[in-house]
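Table S2 (continued). Query chain:
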Amino acid sequence: MTPKKSTLVLLAAAVCLAGPLLLVPAGSSRAADEKITVKPALTVTTAMPQRVTLTTRLPANGNIVAWQEASVGAESGGLRLTDVRVNVGDRVQKGQVLATFASDTLGAEAAQARASLGEAEANAANAAADAERARSLQTTGALSASQINQYLTAERTARARVEAARALFQVQQVRLGQAQVRAPDSGIISARTATVGAVVGNGAELFRLIRQGRLEWRAEVTATELGRITPGTTALVTAASGARLAGRVRTIGPTVDPQTRAALVYVDLTPLPGAASGSARAGMFARGEFDLGATPALTVPQPALVVRDGFSYVYRVNPDSRVSQVKVQTGRFQDARVEIVSGLAAEARIVASGAGFLNDGDLVRIVDAAQSPANGQPVSPAAAAK
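Corresponding output:
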């Protein structure tokens, strides 16, 4: 056999041997290999979205201030302070004596006015007796009409002098009472300028008083959110000191600041039962939330939410146990649940734990929530198999 013929024989034999191999479909071998080698990327628990009732809250910032401050001053000028009985921070009652002035001069003037009143009353009694005798003699002709008229006029004049003396005596009594500075209302002393020995002028301020000890929170709310708040709306306020107080909107400011585009909302504050609220002071900065009511919402567990590149996602589990990444829009957060505003159907089944370790299209193994670890961490396939 020639070399050329032997080469042709070898090629034909090779084609015959390779023929059965070429007839086997390549796809069936690859599919079999994938079925054997592909394993779940993670073992996860799943959950369905739930409709629950969530409260709507509006956060705001502001300052805690006194509800009203009363200025307590001297009503009589030129008197010397002899005693100051309260200090800043003291709680006082309405009518309580806060300070006293020297009252020697006022006492003497009151005594003089009392004596003048007594003299006027004696003169009036004498004039009344003369007038009465003149009236009894009016029909006898013993006295002329002119004399009778003089007695009657003297009676009226004496009576007027009594009234004037009594008014002067009352003025001196009032001035004597002003020697004691009294609280115009119950509350807390917030400032004091009174000093023992000082001679103060009429109307000089001695104390400032937080009326009834009441505080209010003046919250700044933007014009766009202002319409959501009404008088009577409740709020929870936390002061910079950590004190927590309950609040209720008393009124809403009638104007909006043209610079900040915010309006003031005046909120009355009361201590929360069992909460330490004594550290709340006027002038403190405070944060708070207005309670705008409750509405139903579609929610998912907070661990099911994944934030990537500034967007929120959940992973929907498909019938083939593969997951699809779904972009959603979130709303309120409450009690470890997140409101889903849009992007997710109510009947979708999602990954409840371990979502942060998944990618779109991953194959997962699903277990019951009772089989998952207590700490909520995802389970690897090997650990789940054990």
